[in-house]
């Protein structure tokens, strides 16, 4: 929704295409392909396992590739691939670490076990 609104604002600022020319995700439909404003995906939030979000500015990446002479479709495919690789890499990194709440649970369990052990030792003496 925010991407679509940003794309509409972008189109209004340039006096360009808005409304029926824009698809639901902010991409320009084939009807208005000639007046395309590069509103494919202004930016993309990628969910990693539904838990983490990170922002990927896909429009900027596509534009940089196109500025280097990469055809539009290839630039979009490369951007999608890079986004997927980033998603997978961040997922792998996130599996290597423990969140703070999870660590606090483990610490509490260890403290509880330690106090039980201490009380058992004191009772046995």
UniProtKB/TrEMBL annotation:
For whether the record's keyword set contains Mitochondrion, the answer is yes
Q: Name one GO cellular component term.
A: mitochondrion
Question: What's in the keyword line of the UniProt record?
Answer: Coiled coil, Membrane, Mitochondrion, Transmembrane, Transmembrane helix
Question: Know the name of this protein?
Answer: Uncharacterized protein
Q: Which domain of life is it from?
A: Eukaryota
**Pfam families recorded:** CCDC90-like (PF07798)
UniProt-listed InterPro entries: CCDC90-like
Task: Tell where it localizes.
Answer: Membrane; Mitochondrion
**Taxonomic lineage of the native organism:** Eukaryota, Viridiplantae, Streptophyta, Embryophyta, Tracheophyta
- The record's principal subcellular location, in a coarse class, is membrane
